[in-house]
Write a structure and sequence with these properties.
By secondary structure, the protein is mainly alpha-helical. It contains twelve helices and no strands.
Length: 301
Amino acid sequence: MSDGAGRNSVTSAKEHGSSLTATGLLKQTPTTVSSSMSLHQWNTKHLPSRVASDAASAACAAGLVAPLITILDRGIIENASGRSPLMSSIMTSFRALFNRPHIFLASRPFRLISTVYFSTYLVANSIDTITSTLRPYSVDHTTSGPSKFLATSAVNMSLCLYKDSQFAQMFGAASTSRNPIPKASYALFALRDSLTIFASFNLPPLVAPLLSEEIEKVVGRASAAQILAPAAVQIFSTPLHLWGLDLYNRPGMTVGERVRQVRRNWAGSTAARMGRIVPAFGFGGVVNAGVRRRLMGRLEE
């Protein structure tokens, strides 16, 4: 073959390199092939085990936090409806948990709460696994972008709206126990949950680097941010929760009467909601992330 023909062949091969490589007809240098694979090859190594690890992590975290959240949610709703003072309701539920745990753990309120948080953690974990599958990331990679926020919000809000409607009917004012939940209450609950989800899954990775390095002496900054962010947002989301409950418990009240009712219950309810959010998205988030990180680490060994 002449030199001109050879140069033309090489030029033609370079021009069509990408298509030829895709069909396996032309081998490029190792660097180029590696770069091409890193852009297009999915990371499906140990994928069934990774999915199982996501579910196991979510189950561990949900099982840990569900009893306390069930007790606090019931107490907040009974207190807002006037059915029982907050501390009285909490103590009654704790006695039921310790004296008859099998009945408490099989109860409908507990099953509702468990479903909400298992599903929320599982979706958050699944987004991380999907991302590490589609892109060349390690199996324990975590994300904090809009896809996680939208997915976890959709699942958490849908289940929480159903859970809240059931709790309001079970533990709200006796005179309204058969009434439908107002649409405005659903809207307020949805806004409340959006704030909580954002503070639980998206804020911690952004807040952690801003925390003082002194915190590292006690607890990691990532863990501290995971606890502090969702707790702090309850200052703003609790009034939305109380207003939504009041719309259901006391239909026909004026705006001024509702403001006074929310103000009256705000401090105690905020403390109780911080008490439920810290386990749910603080400690629960830490446990979920920690168990998942350990399980995924074993797969990479």
